């Protein structure tokens, strides 16, 4: 098995100990595992080619940033280098179902083929410029923002979805997957209304639907709900920019900029992420968090 281990490089001893622990466990299985190790800051997209397994050591931020480079066929294993269970200052690690204490047995399950395989949907945007160029953003595991780059100015755009076409002025459009709802969406949504949002989704819809959320529309466009625009949909959302300069930001990482007149098309049908877990499925984890 060809394995790439990508780790979060810090000056904190807890992360160094975690990396040493994983290196020792991988060395013990060197007869069946060929491992290359890269810090997150130096990893390149080419490093992910031809891998059977990518091990991400760190927290959720490390995994979401690394996952943009990973295709839908490569297995991904998240290892929480600083679990909150043993330290309140540690990481929740929502996507990280392994840690240094369980890594050796979890790796055995990967090699035996008995790990739980979760196929997680990812958001993706296609940007068509007025000059005829087309750009495809990296796939986003949690959320994707379409907004004005100048945060003091409103995001203005025409939005089409299905047979509906509306002109909006908002703080930006936030798209979130079912599994990424606990990232930005849970903070952006009105307090106490997350259960109402979740009630919109059936289990069968989680693989290709996404939340579309916008706030701060003009008062005369608001509904009686405490948010301005909300949808749970598998349809493409098409945004025609009326902003001098806007951007698309997948998972809070690399920005892709566009100008007035550009068309941005977003849905949750990008390449899936094949994430391995060992004690529960990702559906069970979402439901447990509630």
Structure description:
- With 290 residues, the chain is an alpha+beta fold.
- The protein is 18% helix and 33% strand.
- It contains 6 helices and 18 strands.
- The chain has helices at 13-28, 60-67, 103-112, 185-188, 194-198, 282-289; strands spanning 2-7, 34-39, 53-58, 75-80, 116-120, 124-128, 134-136, 143-148, 155-161, 164-170, 173-176, 210-214, 229-233, 237-241, 245-250, 256-259, 263-267, 273-277.
- The strands form 3 sheets. The chain has a 6-stranded mixed beta sheet, with helices on both faces. Strands 7-6-17-14-9-10 form a 6-stranded antiparallel beta sheet, with no helix packed on it. A 6-stranded antiparallel beta sheet has the order 13-12-11-8-15-16, with no helix packed on it.
- Strand 9 and strand 10 form a beta hairpin.
- The model has no long low-confidence stretch (mean pLDDT 92).
Largest beta-sheet characterization: 6 strands, mixed
User: Biggest sheet: strands side by side, in what order?
Assistant: 2-1-3-4-18-5
**Beginning-to-end CA distance, first to last residue:** 36 Å
Query: Superfamily at the CATH H level of the largest domain?
Result: Probable inorganic polyphosphate/atp-NAD kinase, domain 2
- Going by CATH, the architecture of the largest domain would be Sandwich
**How many discrete structural domains?**
2
Annotated CATH topology of the largest domain: Tumour Suppressor Smad4
- Helix % is 10-25%
Structural class category: alpha+beta
Mean pLDDT: 92
Helix-strand string: EHEEHEHEEEEEEEHHEEEEEEEH
């Amino acid at each position: 098995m060809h394995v790439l281990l990508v780790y979060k490089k810090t000056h904190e001893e807890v992360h160094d100990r975690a990396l040493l622990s994983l290196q020792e466990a991988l060395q013990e299985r060197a007869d069946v595992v060929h491992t290359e190790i890269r810090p997150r800051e130096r990893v390149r997209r080419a490093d992910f080619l031809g891998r059977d397994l990518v091990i991400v050591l760190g927290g959720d931020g490390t995994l979401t940033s690394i996952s943009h480079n990973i295709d839908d066929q490569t297995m991904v294993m998240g290892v929480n280098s600083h679990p909150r269970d043993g330290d309140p200052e540690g990481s929740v690690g929502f996507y990280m179902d392994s840690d240094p204490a369980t890594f050796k047995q979890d790796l055995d399950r990967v090699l035996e083929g008995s790990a739980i395989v979760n196929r997680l949907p990812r958001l993706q945007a296609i940007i068509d410029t007025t000059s005829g160029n087309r750009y495809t953003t990296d796939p986003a595991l949690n959320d994707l923002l379409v907004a004005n780059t100048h945060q003091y100015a409103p995001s203005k755009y025409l939005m089409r979805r299905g047979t509906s076409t509306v002109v909006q002025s908002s703080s930006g459009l936030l798209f979130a997957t079912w599994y990424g709802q606990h990232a930005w969406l849970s903070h952006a949504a009105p307090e106490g209304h997350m259960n109402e949002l979740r009630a919109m989704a059936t289990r069968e819809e989680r693989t290709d639907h996404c939340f579309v959320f916008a706030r701060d529309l003009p008062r005369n466009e608001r509904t009686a709900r405490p948010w301005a625009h909300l949808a749970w949909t598998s349809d493409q959302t098409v945004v025609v920019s009326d902003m001098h300069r806007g951007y698309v930001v997948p998972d809070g990482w690399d920005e892709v900029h566009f100008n007035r007149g550009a068309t941005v098309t977003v849905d949750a049908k990008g390449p899936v992420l094949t994430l391995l877990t060992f004690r529960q499925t990702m559906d069970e984890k979402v439901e447990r968090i509630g």
